[in-house]
Design a protein that fits this description.
mainly alpha; 7 helices; 56% helix
Length: 177
């Protein structure tokens, strides 16, 4: 398995001569105990302090890191607000589960009741709605904006909506009755 982290021996020697450590050593130093084995694993930041440490870790010399750092600065307040809200929600859910476990169940538990509770627990994410984008853009990002009609289209629509009966000078229809 060779790649950017696992370089061949000769390139590792060149990297060590230039930076004073190999790529795996640098990775271990920067990632610490929370390292990911490959690109298919992922992690997340739970607290605003962890987000601040990530922002501080980003290097201003790199073009992409500079842009990422700027985006983090712009979005930091919203991100931390929702981090706190998510933590509060998880704490409330944990407390609710503890209370539910402590309460003795009344009556006979049936298969149907347990299946329904499992289904609702699995599908909680299905209740989520992107209200932030609805507030800002008045539409979902997946739905294209409504196209304004061109002058030709508007004229054609007005002509189609016009009455098919001819009207004279007096405003009365010019048809036989």
């Amino acid at each position: 398995r060779e790649g950017f982290i696992d370089l061949p021996k000769d390139l590792q020697a060149v990297y060590r001569a230039h930076w004073g450590m190999t790529v795996p050593e640098r990775r271990e130093q920067e990632e610490g105990l929370t390292s990911l084995a490959n690109a298919h694993e992922w992690g997340f930041y739970e607290t605003p302090d962890e987000l601040d440490s990530l922002i501080g870790w980003l290097d201003d010399r790199g073009e992409r890191e500079k842009k990422l750092r700027r985006e983090f600065f712009e979005w930091r307040e919203k991100i931390t607000t929702y981090m706190r809200a998510y933590k509060s929600y998880n704490d409330n859910e944990a407390a609710r589960r503890l209370e539910a476990e402590e309460e003795p169940k009344k009556g006979i538990a049936t298969r149907r009741q347990t299946q329904e509770s499992e289904i609702t627990a699995k599908e909680r994410c299905m209740d989520w709605r992107n209200t932030m984008v609805m507030d800002e853009q008045k539409r979902l990002h997946s739905v294209n904006p409504v196209k304004k009609p061109t002058r030709k289209e508007a004229a054609a629509a007005a002509k189609a909506a016009a009455p098919s009966v001819m009207i004279g000078r007096s405003g009365k229809p010019l048809t036989r009755q």
